């Protein structure tokens, strides 16, 4: 997508270490031949589910950034969060930037439906290079779970900072706590399934980073990386999405989709017993499956780091 891939998923559910390894507005790590038009409804539904978390983050940013003229959503996906920025900053022009044309089409359509079309634009191309096409520097730039898909994250931060106006703010969403969906003991299989899935995800993520062309190993100290990129770190805060059981149909669908994608992506990293348990969880006919059980929940935390370009 926009980030030489891909978001993505979600590492994170719509990219961070999200449940589906898709970005909050996201894309996936396995992005070589993704049909973005087909993926778009899932990515949109996921971002809509995470809207309470994003609203918390934007309310915090609104206290840090006074009346930005231009807001750029870097790796916007289908534009759910881009439109939340348009809502949060009614005096701002918002640009959704991504590498996937079908997702930007969804973003434009959403902005039109919500009445933001007159101050909403899109920018297609590989990021961060495509940002050179901006008409003027941004006062606020948002990058959600996209930087970890780029081979040189520190260089990417410096590039993003170069498209900020003096005194402008860069806000990056990376890391936090991975989504949890199930109790430790779910009554089938060996207790602790999600912890072992998470360990397999970490291995897969490390492999993804290592396989990126010209990948640069980096300690994931985001404030230090922002400082090294010539920016002044100004804040760090985490935001919680807490959807307790019993879940809505939309939230249950998200859990099912996330576990299904995990099965496809990191199934080789699980033993036969855990795979069998995961298959039971995904079986709509199984009484112990996610379709029927009432103890399924969604609990996740995302961390946002802010930094300012010196005036």
Could you explain how this protein is built, in words?
- The chain is an alpha/beta fold and 311 residues long.
- Helix content is 37%, strand content 20%.
- It has nine helices and seven strands.
- The protein has helices at residues 36-49, 51-64, 80-88, 101-113, 153-161, 193-211, 222-228, 249-266, 272-282; strands spanning 70-74, 93-98, 120-124, 138-144, 164-180, 232-243, 298-308.
- Strands 3-2-1-4-5-7-6 form a seven-stranded mixed β-sheet.
- Strand 1, helix 3 (80-88) and strand 2 form a beta-alpha-beta unit.
- Helix 1 packs across helix 8 (249-266).
- The longest helix has 19 residues, at 193-211.
- The radius of gyration is 19 Å and the shape is globular.
- Mean pLDDT is 89; it is low at 1-32.
Spatial order of the strands forming the largest sheet: 3-2-1-4-5-7-6
- Sheet with most strands: 7 strands, mixed
Mean pLDDT: 89
Terminal-residue CA separation: 32 Å
Helix- and strand-based class? alpha/beta
Total E-strand runs: 7
Low-confidence stretches: 1-32
Number of helices: 9
Strand content range: 15-25%
What is the N-to-C order of secondary-structure elements (H for helix, E for strand)?
A: HHEHEHEEHEHHEHHE
Helix content: 25-40%
Shape: globular
Please tell me how large the radius of gyration is.
19 Å
